């Protein structure tokens, strides 16, 4: 079977979605990565996404690559080309192809008649046969099959062969023996496709210069690297998808960049703890003792860490916690993305607690905000939680390159050394650990071991006076927790400010707003563009931190209706906004997606248009409603 | 209510090598019940630190939650202290120790804190051989929550309200030995003669030093029938040996009768002298220690004293190969790889 000329074909240059359907554990990941990287090296913006099961071997796994010269990096609905190498998922995969699109499959055996649609093109390459002829070792047959289909795609989609062969060279640097066989496998696929199909197809890529100096990496890699640059010396963690690669990245870079040249000793320590309770306890112990420390986890770990987070809030001990969010508890969806921990993190723990949250949306922001998190946690003497998610953490994203200002000094916050303690005594002042001398809610602390007779204090949860003396007096308690509120007001001023994206209709002020955060960013921006093209002008605001800056309330007040994008079922960010601000709840409309897949611009547009349309026809009868239809 | 001691100093109070009096090692006034075993343990710790001339601020005191875990407020007032959460003292101490390997760490816990809610953290801190003194103030009950039975309550032990324990107890000492602890001792809050030198030896040990101190709760578990009452423990304990601790810098002045004593030299050069030992008991034999403890248990006896010591242990920093300089003292110059390196890392993402 091959391309059928009677079926209308999709036509697109550099605006495509290609999806690979594989079996996990078969080595497809590195071949698929090579595909995405090749597009990137041809100067075309690309966003790959892994869709994988909670399993090591044998279950279906997908890799979805969006190519967009317009630079849109969100997921896009509809598949232009499906590379279907997994018979298990083929029935579903064939349905996902857009009319006029292409279905690439292994034609060693004839395609099951049930998978034949009359509105798409079929491209059969006998991958298994080619491998059987070329290789004797079963593992090689398996691995090279992946490389062969990449070669075929190069011909079909017009990917420059030299770019691919260079990538092979990079990938196997130091394993020279593997280069030639891999290039040969690429050639096998390339030649087969050229011989049997009219290459390239009507959907294809062409070199551009749109990538410039950008980089392609995962959020977790960036986070781990950010922690190295921020001077983290203690990492304590317990393995959990999708956060595991944060500490792995920290380890990878620290073991290269943090070894004492003279002694070979490590200027860092990584503990794989017995559980998350222990991991956060270690982080708190280390930070109390003056080291920059962090942990990385996901939802279940957050639940376990909750008691300690409350202690750290009240005892005012720094801690950096990376939460790479995933969908729900236990088995089922742990390898799917969501933003489901907004509330459990914002109000983590018992008692009157709240926590500082940061919301990165690109690897560059993972790097920058992680580094900033260490400054913030020490400045504010309270935990800071970086709210990443599976999509950001585990998928490659294109972003600006990382930079570091070599003149930058870490902000270690208000810490007194021995000389400063002596100077206090000379001035006749008494050191008080919880004495708000600067009236910003943040007091001075000392590290253990600072001074033989001064500055020691006892750290505990609630109930101590400004001099850290135990007290169960209600007034003393109230003074202290009110000061903690003062500290959170200070936090609002120093946390990263929200980003405003004003609608481009110069003639008229927009009265509709869209609030979003984290990985909804790319699709939100695309949706705003698409809606503007239809004459629907909406102002956007991307949140970067909690507690909210005053401009967030201002933004809501300035608009009649504000959609709030949440990648969770309950509209958690909307709840947080309602709870924290004096904004009218009826103005805030939930815009949700929670099926475990990254949200798409199309989904956002659909929900907004639906709402605006029903509202117009029902003459604003929906004024009271605050909910809207969930994600697909 | 605050309980600060009056700042009065006796002019003739003896001083130690650093010029401190024992008062410099005290803390706030205790708020525990009069006669609580825990207060005697605090007093022993004050004496041990004073006599060893430890700089008070070079110690960090960390605890969980319980009457026992409150005690760090009542000793070493010039040291930083951290009353953390129930059962999690080991993790906080691990983090603190990783941040600064130069301080001495004293962890205080209770039998509820360590043998129930914190059993997991207890097991793992043993495995890591964290350099610290870990004291369990073991009263066989939950003092602070008013006397419930704990996991160390002995079988058939009767508590104040007449309840008889039918569950198997967890013996933390045996557990520690099984898990590879490198210094293990048991003592009694009412036996300062034994407890003080044990504490000194434990603080000189380079690794995890565990002392289970039977410490009667006078309010909830000191009745007849309780196996953690003063009377019961006094009558039923047998020491592995008497012991004397000679710090590394001191000369040995006492003379011991030939063949009657055993010397154990610790990693830092200090020496433990063991006299009047139970026949054939060797504190460097882990298996023998486990057996002796079990044999005593079967006879309804409590074996106290130094039970096991490994004189050349590998602590967590050794295992990790961490810097000799405390991690918390490192600055940007060694921690931050700089922009040039970052630019070459960027290259790997293109
Ligand atoms: C998570 C949690 N659960 C329960 C408690 C209540 N609690 C406080 S102290 C304690 C038991 C303490 O027993 P132990 O460690 O033996 O100390 P003791 O008071 O006997 O010295 C309990 C259960 C708590 N503080 N935290
Ligand atoms: S209740 Fe028991 S353990 Fe607590 S202070 Fe009183 S005597 Fe000590
Ligand atoms: Mg107890």
From TrEMBL, chain A:
It holds the Pfam family POR_N. One of its GO terms (biological process) is response to oxidative stress. One of its GO terms (molecular function) is oxidoreductase activity, acting on the aldehyde or oxo group of donors. It comes from the Bacteria. Residues 226-390 form the Pyruvate flavodoxin/ferredoxin oxidoreductase pyrimidine binding domain. Keywords: Oxidoreductase. Residues 25-191 form the Pyruvate/ketoisovalerate oxidoreductase catalytic domain. PANTHER family: BLR6743 PROTEIN, PYRUVATE-FLAVODOXIN OXIDOREDUCTASE-RELATED. This is 2-oxoacid:acceptor oxidoreductase subunit alpha. It comes from Thalassotalea algicola.
Automatic annotation (TrEMBL), chain B:
It holds the Pfam family TPP_enzyme_C. This is 2-oxoacid:ferredoxin oxidoreductase subunit beta. InterPro entries: 2-oxoacid:Fd_oxidoreductase (IPR051457), THDP-binding (IPR029061), TPP_enzyme_TPP-bd (IPR011766). GO terms for molecular function: oxidoreductase activity, acting on the aldehyde or oxo group of donors, iron-sulfur protein as acceptor; thiamine pyrophosphate binding. It comes from the Bacteria. The keyword Oxidoreductase applies. It comes from Thalassotalea algicola. The lineage of its organism: Bacteria, Pseudomonadati, Pseudomonadota, Gammaproteobacteria, Alteromonadales. The keyword Oxidoreductase applies.
